[in-house]
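the two lines:
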Amino acid sequence: MTKTLYQLRAGEKARIRSIGTDPVTKERLESLGMIEGVEVGMVRSTPLGNPRIYRALNTMIALRNDIAKLVEVEVADHE
Amino acid sequence: MGLTAKSTGIYAFLEDLNQSSVKADAIIALAGNPNTGKSTVFNGLTGLNQHTGNWPGKTVVLAKGNYLYRHKNITLVDLPGTYSLLANSADEQVARDFICFGDPDATVVVADATCLERNLNLVLQVMEITPKTILCLNLIDEAKRKKIEIDIAALENILGIPVIPTAARDKTGLKELREAIHQTVFGKRCNHPKPMVYSENIEVAIEKIQAEVENLFQGRINSRWVALRLLDGDTTIIQEMRNYLQRMEPKDQPVSETYKEVECCGSFGSRV
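prediction for all of em together
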């Protein structure tokens, strides 16, 4: 099932399908490990709910929700 | 990280290197992602005591230090930590400019062995600029504790560059790193980094732009890499090409002419 990164609940994992941000932000995300095809997990939210903490390539990354909404992910269906 | 465009110029720093009392036999750049222990490696190699700390973004300006190995005086330059060299921030630009235009004799990329995959992004970018790249796999003790096993020989094989595991905090592996640097700069050993080949239409475009860039720089910088950046629409590289040419040949060629040519290359790049 396709969702945005923003829609993942804490503990949920998914695979990145596409990054729909501007090219500079995309490059930045990629250099932090958020690359198409890579598994990401939603770790937890923060007190204000924005940003939220994700994990990719064994690294925790805090992302603002407006950016997380532009990252499309594929959640495995077998659950 | 608090750097102004003005303070990112690498040339003042290079002048300073040239004028220092002890002539360096080789200049080595130290690059790597933030918080991988670059400054600890720097201190371990030079015996200096540059401030280290467990937070990213600590090194915001260039630091230099020297060490003597096999009768060679080596100058080490500690670059700010960056995730990439695509110059999206002032620190990235300093690191990129130094590796590309500063012409170091070798570049050591310090990578975090506990999240190697992410770090390899920068390694590949540096390898694309210079074959004289050495991968220093730092925090190998931490990786071992986390039950991460890294096949060093296989990694060397795939990348085509020397890979040295270190735990700089305990000074483990630094002797091997010094030797690898020595071999890369003065030895017969030649690195053959895995070439990065792009899709055909990009390769055709690179070839066109590269010829122009080559004309301007005559082999002194990596024209293929500059062509790639121009294709990418990176305008900061145009300014840096200007700075470089202005510094390198103020006499040989009327500067205004050179400027025009750089401008040509740039607009060509953005058109493709």
